[in-house]
Amino acid sequence: QVQLVESGGDLVQPGGSLRLSCAASGIIFSDYAVAWYRQAPGKQRDLVALIYKFGGTIYAESVKGRFTISRDNGKNAVYLQMNNLKPEDTAVYYCYVSASSSYWGQGTQVTVSS
Predict the structure, then answer these.
(1) Interval 4-49: pLDDT, tens
(2) How far is the C-alpha of 112 from the C-alpha of 82, rounded, in Å?
């Protein structure tokens, strides 16, 4: 049974930082590209960042220079370091991997507000 579990979401002030974690079970995370998506109320779910098997990355323009995706294969986990957070970053953040099927975590809420 494949399971992705996100953690680290919180309420933070503008300019603050958070680190999100995605821990996987039932699959070997290092065999796949892994992505973070986010969805704000009334909006579509959009790609935030993606990390390829050997460490190459892509980012949405809106987060480039502020967010960093990384992976720890020993822990079977992927992380999203978010710096200089803005109110428009408020969303539920989801971990995603496409293997034999597509798998999503349940999401973790990030709220950026004064």
Answers:
(1) 999 999 999 999 999 999 999 999 999 999 999 999 999 999 999 9
(2) 11
